Amino acid sequence: MRQKTIAAYLILSLVTLLAASTLLADGTLLGTINGRVLDQDGKALPGATVDLVSGDQGFRRSGVSDSVGVFNFPLLQPGLYNVTVTLSGFQSFVAKDIVVQPDKTTAVSATLRLAATEAVTVTGEAPLVDKTNSSATTNVSSTLTQKLPVARNYQNLIAFAPGISNNSSGNVNSHGSLNSTNLYLFDGVDTTDVTTGTFGQNFNYEAIQEVNVSTSGISAEYGRSQGAYVNVVTKSGTNLLHGAVKVILTNDDWNAGNKGSNPETGTPFARTKFDEIIKDYTYTLGGPIWQDHVWFFGSYENVNNTGPFRQTIESPLYPDQTGQEYQQTTRTKLWDGKLTAQITPSQLVTFQTNSDPITGFIVDYWGASANLAALTEQNQNQCTGLGCLGSISWSGVFGSAVSAEARWANQAGDIFVVPAFGHGSPFLSLADGLFYNGATFDGLVDRPRTQANVAASYYHELFGQPAQFKAGVDYQSLRSYASYTYPNNEIYIVAQYDPTKSQADQTFQVGDEWDRLTPPVPSISRGKIWGYYALEKFQAGPVALNLGVRIDHQTSVSDIGNTVIDSTKPSPRVTAAWDVMGDGKTLISAGYGRYYQFLLQSIADSIFSGVPVQTNRDIYLWDGSEWVYNSSIRAGGNNAPINLDLQPSYTDEGMLAFQRQIGNTMAVGVRGIYRKWNDLVDDAKYISPDGALIQEPFNYSSSQVNRRYKGLELSFEKRFATNWQALANYTLSRTYGNQFSDFGGQLMDFSGDNCRVTTLGVVPCNQVLNDNQQGIAGYDRTNVLNAFVAYTASLPYVNITAAPAFTFYSGTTYQEQRSVTVPSGATGYNYYFTPRGSSRLPSTYQFDFALEATFKPMGQNGFSIVGGPLEIGVKGEIFNVFNTQKVIRTDYIELRPSAGQPGGAANSIFGAPVSRNALQAPRSIRITGFIRM
Asked: What CA–CA distance (Å, rounded) separates 226 from 595?
């Protein structure tokens, strides 16, 4: 037996590696049903016939229990299944409505009675606690989210999981990680932006079946990330024709006004409301093409959304010309198409394509735009052909011992950026630290990815228990294209900009700077990532273990053909779950994992670029009468020393958890997490003897920088039963250290040079750039509480659902600081007068509420048409019911000079908001009408 097992391992590994040359993906979207057939005395019954039937799609599989009574059905589409077990001389056993979830194992215990006794029929349950998967995974199901008052995007649903700090940009911080270190998957296809590490694509909300968010205890199948592993599982067609039409209505005139005012100028934050009903239309349709074999699903959403008035930052020097109101009208067309084919009972093929063209975003990329001309318009994902993402996946089961799955996908994504209001040149005014007259970018970026993967599993016995050995390979080919500049290919850095005058009429002062950039040329870098993994899942008595290792190899080539990244790193993973009561419902689990973050393609783009974008420039200074050439900046691959020893950062994680399933529909859990980061990546900037700015990449040692996370999580989940469902969690955590950037932090920059700080004068750069960096991260949220509930009352002709949602979180941290002028003239450097995170905004809470009425025209069973009963419904949502408008972002963080305190002093407006955008959004209302079947 042992020789056969070893031989099977070797053959399986070889087959996996060979297949990877053509097809390769991350983890699995499919689930498993397994179990054991026993007699009334608890003895194994080999040779029993086990039949599996999909309740949604009708296909069948059959198997036979092995020598120890075990049966196994891997690679099942999520949904409901019926399991029937028969054996001569015994009554049949039937388990109905067994729930299969992605990457979960549903256990079915079949006890057969003698033929003279009564047959057994049981009803299945969802595996809320799974001893074969100890990862901290939150399943956010559309069953709940479609009832809740919630923003209509998958990014918002990520924040339902414990350990998550939400971010208004849609990119979250997970267990202390940066918001650029998450992995975003659509049905297993990686859609993460290859250059920034942030989310790379949006998705039609109506096509989402559930969002799985895994934050710790991640198996070796997944890699390249230190943050959350987000898998958007999309809907599929079934044997019944189902569809829906929705219209979602909003109107700014229905919403509450803005509270507060600028604390320095007294200008109210109240906005000008507009009375216009915004209509968002969505359509979905799914059903059979060939009953029991082939199904389709499609969705489409179309909306032109004019948002409420926002405002630029108000300058105390020019309150009448700044703090200007503006609106954005985005034009969105989200579509998704999916074809699923169960070619044979054990062979599944899926084709999918989707796209998300959205135009009209108005973005303050400066983060400090004073007037409209400084804002940028962004248009994204104008993909053609089959859309922005196309994929084909296959899974197959071969006998009772081997299964395999593979996927190929191609993803495209572009962003066009142009001036939103006018075409002037940008000005940075040092008098108030704000930007005027010109947008941040003018040009485009494009970041396509081709990816593939393959994995195979061998099911066997170990220690008399069922076990699974799995091995796989995944591959990605990355490309990053960039061509953009400042409007008019220039930027001014001046003592004071006067917005009452045109650009041509500005008055310059001695020392003002004019940077004339070199003409933009496209910069194209490329990268490849290979991942190899193997793991063994098995049981040793009451303990289920998952022992795995992953090896990731990454290379990147700059836009002038230099290999700038060449790294190979192993990641060990181990988790263990102790089945305390022996019933699979009370688990104590522990785990250790090492997670490497892939080196962002932006490292090749910015540090090693031989065709630098928005970097190379000639600098001129005003001498009182004319612009005089001062110096030039020439950065890129010809200057930056290549460091092939550069390694991706990694975090070591330890976790300990307790989980308990209560009955068939509820579960509670407690989990402790500790994380420590190592080999953090940064770049040391300095000016070469010939005046060029050099960026030298390196890895910090643990004695130079540190980053830590520790957290305690409490969770509660209630699946829909007895009219209600719920999801709630609380996280107590702390993220601390002295480096919280991808690779462009200010530590180690300009060592040996002098910097200038207003109120301090000229100071050594290594002093002002390194002081007070140790402390609490700016994205730290000490306390986060989420609670989501939906209760449905079923009446003869209508179902009424009430759904409250409550969130509470600690405010962001900040510290007293002033901007620093560095030798290169670059902006964004700061001197901390107080330790990092020494100040914190007040805690914030929000209560939202939704009420839905679903009418059944013909009574309780509805009016039956093709596909099932027809339902007509209306849903009302109120966001921020109590209209709390607390500060969520601080704008006044720079010290202001004051009498007797030349170093600067925190005045009465320190930590205050400058614009209404820094406050919670006012109470708002949304109404939805729908027809579905």
From this structure: 5
Q: Which residues sit opposite 807 in a β-bridge?
A: 786, 846
Whichever domain contains 146, its CATH number is 2.170.130.10
pLDDT, position 902? 41
**Residue appearing with tokens 């007895």:** 722
pLDDT < 50: residue spans in the chain: 1-27, 859-860, 862-867, 897-905
Residue 464: what pLDDT? Answer: 82
Taking a C-beta distance cutoff of 8 angstroms, is the pair 746, 684 a contact? no
**CA 406, chain centre distance (Å):** 23
State residue 17's pLDDT score.
38
Alpha carbons 771 and 765: distance in angstroms, whole number: 10
For residues 70 and 47, membership in a common domain is answered with yes
Side-chain-side CA neighbours of 812 within 13 Å: the count stands at 21
Give this prediction's pTM. Answer: 0.90
Residue recorded with tokens 């900040």 = 814
SS (H, E, C) 421-474: CCCCCCEEECCCCEEECCCCCEEEEECCEEEEEEEEEEEEEECCEEEEEEEEEE
Q: Which helix (H) or strand (E) holds 488?
A: none
**Residue-level pLDDT at 781:** 95
Question: 111 and 19, same structural domain?
Answer: yes
Asked whether residue 204 is assigned to any structural domain, the reply reads: yes
Helices of type H across 512-557: none
Burial class (CB in 10 A: 0-12, 13-18, 19+), 373: buried
- Decide if 609 contacts 559 (C-beta within 8 A): yes
Q: Pairing between strand 229-234 and 183-186?
A: parallel
Which DSSP symbol is given to 44?
Answer: B
Q: Which residues of 821-851 are buried (b: 16+ CB within 10 A; e: fewer)?
A: bbbbbbbebbbbbbbbbebbbeebebbbbbb
Residue 429 lies in a domain: no
For residues 775 and 792, give the distance between their C-alpha atoms in angstroms, rounded to a whole number: 47
Greatest extent of the chain over all pairs of C-alpha atoms, in Å: 108
Tokens representing residue 2 in the block: 């042992």
Under a CB-based contact definition with an 8 Å cutoff, are residues 186 and 208 in contact? no
Which DSSP state fits 343?
E
pLDDT computed for residue 740 by the predictor: 94
If one counts every other C-beta atom within 10 angstroms of the C-beta of residue 688, the result is 11
